[in-house]
Specification:
heterotrimer, A mainly alpha, B mainly alpha, C mainly alpha, A: mainly alpha, two-stranded antiparallel ribbon, 2 strands, 75% helix, 3% strand, C: two-stranded antiparallel sheet
């Protein structure tokens, strides 16, 4: 137990890396061994993650499983890791989705093959993603954050669609562009803190950071830009549709399910608690951008004929709800955000799996070509309908809570924030939910319903296969369980997000007191 | 014997050697002219040693060195000339331009 | 009553079971559905009688509530999962349970052999579960869940035959139109939640009644909640989805689009009535006015429809508007009573219509006529339903409608303008309703057959279909007797808000019945007896007739004004902006970077800097090329040069005396 307490999360992060290294050492032809290694290492990481989950004290709001080892003493960068109720669900999501991706990829390695590189990169990616969620040191966080880019770049650039080079480079450079500002923000924090430190926890303590308001706002804006590109927030989202459309199925799933969450997580873990003052200054801006993203994403979805691209744009809208929840700075809003992240990860991840499998059968993503899928492969069509309905936020399914709670929270944001702005955002978001329902149902009408095109090329199509089912059933079950039993996440997050709000509200009171003094 | 006389003699000898090197076509004569120049230098060494009055006889020793080197040089030179003759049946330097660009 | 939550759970389990193993049964899952519905009805009746017993024992009985914490989504924010049973709930449970059972039975025969019959019954069961959840929910968010759940089931069932484009389009239209209202409902919940810090219905109502919530807040909440009711109960201006929803199988129309789901809006207003009542007058007046507008325009539309199911659909809208209008004038009990009676006769009418459609293979009344002798049971039960709808005594519809009209009259006499408008609209609608009922009956069952007698041989439907008709017909006659004014009146004790029942007013009853008789007579005279032959196209009313035929152009306005601009215009514009402006900036940044890179590489680096180096090298080469000719190979020249050099050096040495 002690081992889990101190090194559990570290193990969960580095087991996949170990797996990747071992795979890299195997000779090229041994596909079977490589697949097995990938399965075992990601599975072992998942098991460790679940052990951590069971050992986790869900009522406690503070950090747990904390470990700190000196890393680069010269700049006081430590291997400082730990988790709380906000990061735990995300880590478990990342571990689970990667494991399912490995299962799915067992027989679905996209062209041009090469299992060795493919699985090694997926495992490397997993390490980066998990690491981002546990790091409590800015340097460590940055290393993991950037580590994610490289494998994803290759996944898109090698195993992607026709336009993969463009998409891969765009993804890489756009994110890198954002993270430079983030890095500048980190460095500014380091040099402005006394004593100089990269430690997120110490930076939150009173008196460590003494910033003039203007500089604080500037630093927040820089970091927010870095995170916003990753989320992606409107108008920094344009890399997303291209990356998603061109990425191989596994890449899209991981991108949607986990990678995007790193941005929103960054807001909740770094930007807001370290700089609560600027967070309140920027909250209305974020709320408005989020509301725009919701409607805008939905409108763009309506314009799509490409199934995968439509799902990609739907992510823009859904992450808009998450950002709206974060912008309220209330426990309700943060809870909505975490729930929304998990739900979006599960539901949209599942939708991308389906899109991938549909493409494998039809060799196209174009909706008119897919017409009448309900008659040809009814189970697949049924799953598509199920996930689409979950994604548009229907009760009893995962998608609902995040959206409703985010809107609920934005009716009454943190005291001191402009309610007019937030209620406007709420109304826009409400319109967005109608449009969201609109494009998903329209998609179902065009894909599932109607009669199949009579072109005779396809012949008989295989319905859902066993291996696909094995990879999907956990996600499908989660969609239902999260919808019916939201406590699964809320019980873990509530105390942590309450502390987060207290941090922000405490700052507010300090400011008010200062003004009163003058 | 005054130094000047010797110097005049050696200068004359040297000039003859220079003339031989620059003006004659026959490679063997050119080599011989080189010997003349070397010998002129040898004479100078010996003469200046007497004038300076060096007990260690460095001038004489140096002349001996020069003679030894000259012998070696002549050996190599004559060998080259012999080989050139074998290859091109001439020892005329006008016709031998192996060092041309 | 403590176990009331079991009832929706049964329905939900039924849905799950049918999806899981329904296909293995001979009727492909219908058995499970019917069995579960029997259990649901029994459970509902148990709850109902238990509740009545409680009410009898304690007139102040406020209902039984039990809940568990569903989740805490904030330090002080709790969502409960629970149920709440009072008279209103119990009445609705019986309505849902009974109609659901009838419809399941009927559908077991009607849908036999359909490709997706398993899916059909599962969704039907899931729908029942959602409706029961809505009715039983103790908090507003849970109500919203049931509400949306019904929405999606309705979507799936309207689009049941989705091979045809019109059907799936109708399904989308129904879902999206109601969703527009749902957003309002959702915002109303938010307003009330933050005001009361709770989703709990009873708590919110108590706080509203006690004045703990500001009047302005209540007004905003009431208006927003009513948006939900407008959508779900198909009130003007969001009523256009209901007629199109008739694309679904007829049993679905009977269950969802007549008896249960569409009354959810009325139920919502009734359930949250303290919020409406304690808000400023605007809230209830708005309800009354919307109801008044809707009842008249829908009744007019029902007059000109050719499609039998569409006539019934518009009549449903009109009758729902009666309930809404009744709530708006404060006739609380009467409205709920009308839910009760309307459920019986409207479910009966739809199922009867299904039976007729089954027989003649057409929805159009122009393909029917003279069916009375061929389908006696269907015809008689249908006529009973029609008479109940037209509110002739002693049929069920009369008692509830009379109470509603009396309520409106009393509101009007108390000086309420909205009450006056509602009263007039109700009287007018009474006339119109009877008129279109007469038309419908005349065209369907009487006169000469208009169907193709060579190919179509109408016959009575199987017993599985007729028995539900008979059962519903009995209720369509007797169902209203529980609310006979006077000492016999039971309904008012079950469901009431504040004081019970408006007093019976014989003058009103006579007047409204007289109007209904007149309307029926007019309709019958025109369409059955042919006494009055008018071609509406050629009279002064022609523009008005065209307006009705085109459904007031509302569909056009919505499609051309909202759907198409958003779907085809705005979305493309947004996407264009995305691709050309937002992505354009990104791409432009990329292109500029690449271009400047090209410039830096080709012109600056390769051209200038590397050029310098290269040119130096080239100069050296060139110079060597020219100078090499000095190397003649003539050794004596070299020697001469050497001597010359030495001589120069010596000369210089001598001259400068270094």
């Amino acid at each position: 137990m002690n081992l889990v307490d101190e090194w559990g999360i570290t193990l969960a992060v580095f087991l996949p890396l170990l797996g990747a290294l071992v795979i890299a050492l195997t000779p090229k032809g041994m596909e079977g061994v490589q697949k097995l290694l990938a399965l075992v290492s990601s599975g072992a990481a998942l098991v460790v993650g679940l052990m951590v989950t069971f050992a986790f004290n869900h009522g406690e709001g503070g950090l747990q499983f904390e470990t700190s080892v000196p890393w680069i003493p010269a700049i006081d960068a430590n291997y400082h890791v730990g988790i709380d109720g906000i990061s735990l669900p995300l880590i478990v999501l990342s571990l689970l989705v990667t494991f399912l991706c490995v299962i799915y990829a067992y027989w679905h390695i996209p062209e041009p093959g090469n299992a060795k590189a493919f699985f090694a990169l997926i495992l490397l990616l997993e390490t980066g993603m998990n690491g981002s969620f546990i790091a409590l040191d800015l340097v460590l966080f940055f290393v993991f954050w950037e580590l994610v880019l490289v494998p994803m770049y290759f996944l898109i650039g090698i195993w992607g669609g026709e336009n993969r080079q463009y998409a891969a480079i765009k993804f890489f450079l756009y994110t890198l562009f954002g993270s430079i500002f983030m890095l500048l923000g980190f460095l500014a924090l380091y040099f402005q803190s006394d004593p100089h430190t990269f430690d997120m926890i110490r930076l939150q303590q009173a008196g460590v950071l003494n910033l003039p308001v203007g500089l604080a706002n500037l630093i927040f804006a820089g970091m927010a830009l870095g995170f916003a590109v990753k989320v992606p927030m409107w108008p920094f989202h344009t890399w997303l549709p291209d990356a998603h459309t061109q990425a191989p199925t596994i890449g899209s799933v991981l991108l949607a399910a986990v990678l995007l969450k790193m941005g929103t997580y960054g807001f909740m873990r770094i930007a807001i608690p370290i700089l609560p003052g600027p967070a309140q200054t920027f909250a209305p801006v974020i709320a408005i951008l989020a509301a725009i993203a919701i409607v805008y994403g939905a409108l763009c979805c309506l314009a799509q004929t490409n199934l995968k691209r439509m799902i990609a744009f739907s992510s823009v809208g859904h992450m808009g709800f998450v950002m709206l929840g974060i912008a309220t700075l209330t426990p309700e809003g943060f809870n909505a955000a975490v729930f929304g992240m998990i739900a979006h990860g599960v539901v949209t991840g599942m939708l991308f799996f389906l899109a991938g499998s549909i493409k494998e059968r039809y060799h196209t993503y174009e909706m008119p070509e897919l017409a009448g899928m309900g008659l040809r492969i009814p189970r697949m069509a049924g799953l598509l309908a199920f996930c689409a309905i979950a994604s548009l936020g229907l009760p009893g399914l995962a998608g609902l809570w995040g959206e409703v709670m985010a809107l609920l929270a934005s009716y009454r944001p943190l005291e001191g924030l402009d309610t007019t702005v937030f209620r406007t955002a709420m109304v826009i978001g409400g319109i967005g939910t109608v449009l969201t329902a609109g494009y998903f149902l329209w998609m179902l009408q065009r894909v599932n319903m109607g009669t199949p095109r009579d072109d005779g090329h396809h012949g008989r199509l295989a319905d859902v296969e066993r291996l696909e089912a094995a990879a999907w059933i956990p996600l499908l079950a989660l969609i239902l369980i999260l919808g019916l039993y939201p406590r699964l996440i809320m019980d873990t997050t509530t105390s942590s997000v309450t502390r987060l709000t207290e941090t922000v509200a405490g700052e507010r009171q300090a400011q008010v007191a200062q003004v009163a003094d003058h | 014997m005054p130094l000047n006389w010797i110097l005049v003699l050696t200068t004359f000898l040297f000039c003859v050697g220079v003339y031989g090197v620059l003006a004659r076509r026959n490679a063997v004569i050119v080599l011989m002219s080189v010997e003349l120049m070397l010998n002129a230098v040898n004479l100078n060494f010996i003469a200046f040693n007497g004038v300076v009055g060096d007990d260690r006889l460095i001038g004489q020793v140096f002349a001996l060195f020069v003679i030894a080197i000259a012998a070696a040089e002549l050996g190599v030179g004559l060998a080259i000339v012999l080989l050139i003759y074998r290859n091109s049946f001439t020892v005329s330097l006008d016709e031998v331009n192996l060092l041309k660009w | 009553m403590e176990m009331a939550f079991v009832v929706p759970v049964i329905a939900m389990a039924s849905a799950a079971l049918i999806w899981a193993i329904g296909k293995r049964f001979p009727r492909r899952g219908a058995e499970i559905g019917v069995g579960a519905m029997v259990a649901v009805l029994l459970g509902s009746l148990l709850v109902f009688f238990d509740t009545i017993r409680h009410i009898g024992a304690d007139p102040d009985f406020h209902g039984f509530e039990r809940a568990v914490t569903w989740m805490n989504f904030g330090p002080d924010s709790t969502l409960e999962l629970g149920f709440h049973v009072d008279g209103l709930t119990a009445v609705l449970m019986v309505v849902v349970g009974f109609v659901a059972l009838m419809v399941h039975l009927y559908a077991a025969s009607y849908m036999k052999g359909d490709v997706r019959v398993t899916h059909f019954f599962a969704t039907l069961s899931l729908f029942t579960a959602s409706m029961l959840n809505l009715v039983l929910a103790n908090n507003m968010l849970q109500m919203l869940l049931g509400w949306e759940g019904m929405g999606i089931c309705s979507y799936l069932l309207i689009g049941h035959w989705w091979e045809k484009h019109e059907n799936s389009s109708a399904a989308i239209k129904a879902f999206l139109t109601t969703r527009v209202g749902d957003v309002g409902f959702m915002f109303g919940i938010f307003v009330l939640f933050w005001a009361a810090r709770s989703f709990n219905v009873a708590q919110i109502n108590e706080m509203a009644a006690a004045g703990d919530i500001a009047r302005g807040t209540l007004t905003v909440a009431a208006v927003l909640l009513f948006c939900g009711a407008i959508g779900k109960s198909a009130q003007f201006p969001l009523h256009t989805w209901l007629p199109d929803a008739m694309a679904g199988p007829t049993p679905v129309s009977a269950l969802i689009h007549a008896a249960t789901m569409v009354v959810a809006g009325v139920y919502l207003v009734a359930r949250m009535f303290p919020v409406f009542d304690n808000a400023s007058d605007i809230a209830l007046d708005e309800v009354a006015i919307i109801g008044s507008i809707t009842m008249v325009i829908a009744a007019l539309l029902a007059l000109v429809q050719q499609d039998l199911k569409r006539v019934l659909a518009y009549s449903t809208i009109s009758q729902l508007a009666y309930m809404i209008g009744g709530l708006g004038v404060g006739a609380y009990t009467a409205s709920v009573f009308h839910i009760w009676t309307h459920a019986w006769f409207k479910a009966l009418l739809f199922l009867g219509a299904g039976s007729v459609i089954h027989a003649v293979h057409s929805n159009n009344m122009t393909d029917m006529g003279g069916l009375f002798k061929k389908m006696p049971i269907t015809s008689i039960t249908f006529i009973i339903g029609g008479l109940a709808l037209a509110a002739f005594p002693p049929f069920a519809g009369f008692w509830s409608k009379d109470e509603l009209v009396t309520g409106a009259y009393e509101a009007a006499t108390h000086g309420s303008t909205a009450g006056m408008i509602t009263f007039i609209a109700m009287m007018l609608t009474a006339f119109l309703t009877a008129c279109y009922v007469a038309r419908m009956l005349a065209l369907t069952f009487f006169g000469a057959p208009k169907y193709d007698e060579k190919h179509v041989h109408p016959h009575e439907s199987p017993r599985l279909m007729t028995y539900p008709l008979i059962a519903l017909a009995v209720l369509a006659v007797a169902g209203g007797w529980v609310g006979i004014p006077g000492d016999l009146n039971q309904f008012g004790t079950w469901v009431h808000y504040g004081e019970e029942h408006a007093a019976f007013n014989p003058m009103i009853a006579i007047a409204s019945t007289g109007l209904a008789l007149a309307g029926f007579a007019v309709g019958w005279a025109i369409f059955r007896l042919g006494r009055v032959k008018v071609d509406l196209q050629r009279t002064a009313l022609a523009p008005f007739y065209r307006l009705l035929l085109n459904k007031y152009y509302l569909d056009e306005i919505y499609f051309r004004g909202i759907v198409r601009p958003v779907r085809d215009g705005l979305s493309r514009a947004a996407y264009w902006v995305n691709q050309h402006v937002l992505d354009g900036v990104v791409n432009a940044a990329g292109i500029v970077a690449v271009k400047s890179g090209t410039f830096a590489y080709r012109d600056v680096d390769q051209g200038l800097i590397d050029g310098l180096v290269n040119n130096l090298a080239r100069f050296a080469g060139l110079a060597g090329d020219k100078l090499k000719f000095w190397q003649t190979g003539n050794m004596q020249r070299y020697a001469a040069a050497m001597f010359l050099g030495v001589a120069t050096l010596v000369g210089a040495f001598a001259f400068f005396r270094f």
